Amino acid sequence: MQNFGTFLQESNFFKNGVNVGFIQVKNTQEINLRVFERGVGETQACGSGACAAAIACAIQKELDQELKINFHQGQVFTKVNLADSKVMLQGSAEYRKQDVLLNL
Question: What is the value of pTM for the model shown?
Answer without folding.
Answer: 0.83
